[in-house]
Amino acid sequence: MGSRPRRLLGHCLLPPALFLLCLLCSAVSARTSHGGAPKRQRNVTRWKGKAIDVGGCDLFQGSWIYDDAYPLYDSSSCPFVEPEFDCQKYGRPDKLYLKYRWKPTACDLPKFKGEDLLERLRGKKMMFVGDSISLNQWESLACMLHAAVPGAKTTLDRKDPRSSLWFEDYNASVMFYRTPYLVDIVQDKIGRVLKLDSIQSGSSWLGVDLLIFNSWHWWTHRGSIQPWDYMQEGTNVYKDMDRLVAFYKGLSTWARWVDSNINSSTTRVFFQGISPTHYSGRDWGDPSARNCNGQTQPLGGSTYPGGSPPEDAVVRKVLAGMARPAYLLDVILLSQLRKDAHPSAYSGDHSGVDCSHWCVAGLPDAWNELLYAALVL
Ligand SMILES: *[C@@H]1O[C@H](CO)[C@@H](O)[C@H](O)[C@H]1NC(C)=O
Ligand SMILES: *[C@@H]1O[C@H](CO)[C@@H](O)[C@H](O)[C@H]1NC(C)=O
Ligand SMILES: *[C@@H]1O[C@H](CO)[C@@H](O)[C@H](O)[C@H]1NC(C)=O
After folding, report:
1. What angle do CA 125, 257, 308 make, to 5 degrees?
2. Ligand 2 centre and the CA of 146: distance in Å?
3. Which residues, by range, are in coiled-coil regions (predicted)?
């Protein structure tokens, strides 16, 4: 993901703008009605994939607090972190960004226990599906598990699109499947076609016990890094369309795929919320900052001046419309507060300043702590 995803509101002409307004309204109302949900959501042993409440605690509302016990591991002793995310190895001079713990306002997160997670995964498979933000979270989890059981025998099979890390003693597989749009890109006579209503690679996700999906950043790509020439839905072919509308259509295809192919009594499905970028200091109330470069501390408090981007409303709208909604790993706000957590100039893979991905160790560890919390609480 070499590009710099941009804010999209500026691209919206009238019909997409109306479409968006409608999305925003329905997402807000979905949230509000959820907030008033009755106590049945307390029983997460029979969790159906929707609840955020754990005894009344929203895990994703909170703030970052300094904790000397962090980071959870030393990236230099993790064999699974790639240059792209290995900020310390590639010269990042500061370490304060490693020292923060996510603290939900109304409760404490359970301590991450890697051995316990592997035990829960015994004889099972879990898979992160999506773009390089999924890769980011997969590598973080690999490091967290390795730190918990450093002597465990592992086999890493790193391939495109499917990579797998197998923990032999647990017969547990922790996998990553790269498909940035979730829906298909096919080679056709007219060129490369992004098929908004087709999801052939879904067959590779069947039989996995725990799925964590993600998509967004590639929907904004244009020019030489746009990997398709046309979009297609049914028999209609488009040279381009409003990217939020396209995202809504593609994500809806994914949602229908989950509803008709996943047995919710045997498989848990998560959707990793939008991972924000930090390319304008104005978003966090510091107009003098050009981007995330040089940022060494998170924002305090529990609100983000830049507010919530429209793609977040698309995600909420699509999940709310599912027959069995995927659990939203709602990381957007807590990640927005982490303007300090990107590789910036210290990526071993991207030139320039990367304010899209995240250092490992770092923020994705918190995403995995939250994933673990959602599994055990
Ligand atoms: C939660 O649901 C399970 C299965 O339906 C039931 O056995 C258990 O007693 C419930 N726990 C609580 C605290 O209601
Ligand atoms: C290991 O786990 C897979 C499922 O991930 C299962 O099909 C296989 O039978 C297991 N092997 C053993 C030896 O338990
Ligand atoms: C889902 O899985 C359960 C447990 O294996 C099984 O009893 C049920 O028939 C499955 N449902 C469908 C629709 O396949």
Report:
1. 90
2. 21
3. none
Amino acid at 182: L
Single-letter residue type at 311? E
Residue 13 covered by a domain? no
**How far, in Å, CA of 229 to CA of 240, rounded?**
8
The stretch 63-67 carries a mean pLDDT of 98
Cα–Cα dist 342/84, whole Å: 11
Instruction: Of 130, 135, 186, 132, give the one whose Cα is nearest residue 315.
Output: 130
- Measuring from atom 2 of ligand 2, which residue has the nearest CA? 123
Gap between the Cα atoms of 212 and 232, Å rounded: 26
Q: CA–CA distance from 192 to each of 127, 167, 202, 224, 230 (Å)?
A: 27, 38, 19, 13, 6
265 lines ligand 1 (CB under 6 A): no
**Neighbouring C-beta atoms of residue 256, cutoff 10 Å:** 16
The answer to the question of residue 1 being in a domain is no
Phi, psi torsion values for 179, nearest 5 degrees: -155, 90
pLDDT for residue 212 is more than 60? yes
Cα→Cα distances 238→96, 200, 241, 322, Å: 47, 20, 7, 27
Which pTM was predicted?
0.86
Strands 236-238 and 230-233: antiparallel
pLDDT at 177 over 70: yes
Question: 260: Cβ below 6 Å to ligand 3?
Answer: no
Question: Residue range 95-103: average pLDDT?
Answer: 98
Cis amide bond preceding 71, omega within 30: yes
Any idea what DSSP says for residue 269? E
Within-domain flag for 26: no
89 with 122: CB under 8 angstroms? no
> What range defines the domain where residue 357 resides?
62-376
How far is 245 from 298, CA to CA, in rounded Å? 32
Question: Structure tokens of 295?
Answer: 């940022």
Confirm whether 72 is domain-assigned: yes
Between CA 137 and CA 270 the distance in angstroms is 13
| CB contact set of 88 (below 8 Å; sequence gap of 6+) | 75, 76, 95, 346, 359
Pocket test for ligand 1, best of 39, 41, 42, 43 (most atoms within 8 A of CB): 43
Tokens for 14, please give them. Answer: 């009238």
